[in-house]
Amino acid sequence: MGDTLLEVEDLHVHFPTPDGVVKAVNGISYSLAKQEILAIVGESGSGKSVGVLSLLRLIPDRDCHLRGSVHFEGSDLLQLSDVEMRELRGNRIAMVFQDPMTSLNPVLRIGDQIQESIIEHQGISEKVAKNRAIELLELVGIPEAEKRYRHYPHQFSGGMRQRIMIAAGLACEPSILIADEPTTALDVTIQAQIIDLVKKLRREIGMSVIWITHDLGIVAGLADRVAVMYAGKIVEFAPVDELFKNPQHPYSKGLLNSLPRLDTRSEEPLEAIEGFPPNLIDYPTTCPFLERCSSRTEQCQTPPAQQALTPSHQVWCHHAVKV
Amino acid sequence: MLGYIFGRILALMMILLAVSVIVFALMHSVPGGPFDERKGRLPPAAKANILKKYGLDQPVWKQYINYMSHAVRFDFGIPYQRPHTTVAKLISKSWAITVQVGLTTIVVAFGFGILAGIYAAYHQNSWVDTLVTFVSSLGVTVPNFVVAMWLILIFAVSLNWLPMGGWGSSGQCLIDKYFCTDWILPVIAYAIAPMAIVARYTRASIVEVMGEDYVRTARAKGLSEVKVMRKHVFRNAQIPMVTALGTEIPNLITGSIFIESTFRINGLGKYFVTSTLNRDYPMIMATFLLVAFLWGILYLLTDIAYTMIDPRVRLGAKSLS
């Protein structure tokens, strides 16, 4: 991969609550290269969304404690002032959210919602911004862009709205697009269109993408590298082919085994990972996956350190086997 | 849109007709009449003469038709209690004063209520928020005449800063050059309850909208807090606010007997009570029709406001996907 664009180091996100501190993200580190698509997978509550929301500091500071560092274009995002952070948001790093039905403001024209970040960050006139917004609508494949520019969100279908969200995200030509489960609320055919669109845009605009999902099917078709998250930690990090061929962490294996495959007999039940993720308030001092792991041993009482199986394939498990 | 408004106004006419029938029937079915002898007996011939003069000797349905045929020409009759004037004159004279109190109250109640609500919503769970919530609960629960008494005791009696009551020496206070301080205490006393409701409702609406996904989207675009609030939050928060807060307006501009009698304001509010007690049929009809008309107009205006705020309810908007 090319140059490193974003470097996340030892990121912690903790939420103080009346019941105790919820340790949502516990020391994740990764880097993102230029034009790379990085997928972050994991079940609900594994900290994948919180982990990326905190990159843009979109969780109010009074609600959470951030620790670690996020290096991007020569500065640490976690140390920036609110004003400096705001200049980055939507401009250098943009975000597309999960539910396109609720993520667009129902009372504003979509054109307005696409161009507002251009006007905010580039200080150009409404007229120029309008032309740019229409171009963006064409880029994401909205027919009759000029006419549709004046329409409201309720006049679009779910897939169209997600295209509009992406157009709004691309408005300032960000170097990173963070997509938080952007296709979860859409049906499969639309999913495929959105994925093709993102791949096309990556090539054309040359941006990097962080794609949060729990759908391994999307990961296989889209990502360059995959980080598997569990209980606020990355448990395995590998290029996409490597992960699908040679998963080493028992959790990654479990996720892959729970996928329906064309060659399994339809009567056979899918394998599920037994049990529940650990309590994030009373965080275990053992390997976090211990409770649900079928191959646990004495060793697993201590949290596993990172093991590099190959230079690009890391796993956090005592039982990983080097090839 | 024009057709829609025309239709609504037609519907409003039907409502007024229904209200007039109900009120007319109710007031005539209540025992007692406007010329009952309370202070001494009237010769039967004189009484029959009075009843005949006002048409009260005729069957009720005939009286109704008689009344309505005049009412459609804006002739609302003569008040039995003040036969030297007409209902229309009496109402327009007293309402002119009440409207001054009412509109000032609306400005104060909505102005401060909305500001307090926005501030409380934006500083959720801070001490200011707690204070606004506390004062609002107080404002809703304490009756306005109690507030009025305290205001008079403090600002008029003890401090002697403001007049105790009255509405200008000339019967005018806020119009033209007759600006005076008479309005301050009644308006504050009158505004506290609606202000509390406005503040609580504003807070609730804004807090709800601030939790919406599209507000997070707006923040992720790097918009400043002021822009996020102004462009994305307020506009959406207006929708529930219009629904709940619009209904305060007709009540406020038709006056309150409590405020008017506490502050010696010669307004419309008292006629709602006195006309009923005196069985002053033309006054009862006129005041009730006025209230019904104001409510009807208000609902029409809120519905038009929706279509301006929310494109999803815009009439004739083509919904295509």
List the helices and strands and how they pair.
The complex is a heterodimer of chains A (323) and B (321).
Chain A: E1 4-17, E2 20-33, E3 37-41, H1 48-53, E4 65-72, E5 75-76, H2 82-88, E6 93-96, H3 110-122, H4 126-139, H5 145-148, H6 158-170, E7 176-180, H7 188-205, E8 208-213, H8 216-222, E9 225-230, E10 233-239, H9 240-245, H10 250-257, E11 307-310, E12 313-315
Parallel strand pairs in A: 3-8, 3-9, 6-7, 7-8
Antiparallel strand pairs in A: 1-2, 1-4, 4-5, 9-10, 10-12, 11-12
Helix pairs in contact in A: 3-4, 3-6, 4-6
Chain B: H1 2-29, H2 44-53, H3 60-71, H4 87-122, H5 127-141, H6 144-158, H7 184-210, H8 213-220, H9 225-246, H10 248-253, H11 257-262, H12 269-277, H13 281-309
Helix pairs in contact in B: 1-13, 4-5, 4-7, 5-7, 6-7, 7-9, 8-9, 9-13, 12-13
Outline the structure in words.
The complex is a heterodimer of chains A (323) and B (321). With 323 residues, chain A is of the alpha/beta class. Chain A has two domains: 4-92 and 173-270, P-loop containing nucleotide triphosphate hydrolases (Rossmann fold, 3-Layer(aba) Sandwich); 105-171, no CATH class. Chain A has ten helices and twelve strands. In chain A, a hairpin with a 2-residue loop joins β4 (65-72) and β5. Chain B has a domain at 87-280: Orthogonal Bundle (MetI-like fold). In chain B, 69% of the residues lie in helices and 0% in strands. The two termini of chain B are 23 Å apart. The relative contact order of chain B is 0.14. The chains are: A alpha/beta (323), B mainly alpha (321). The interface between A and B is medium-sized, with 31 and 26 residues.
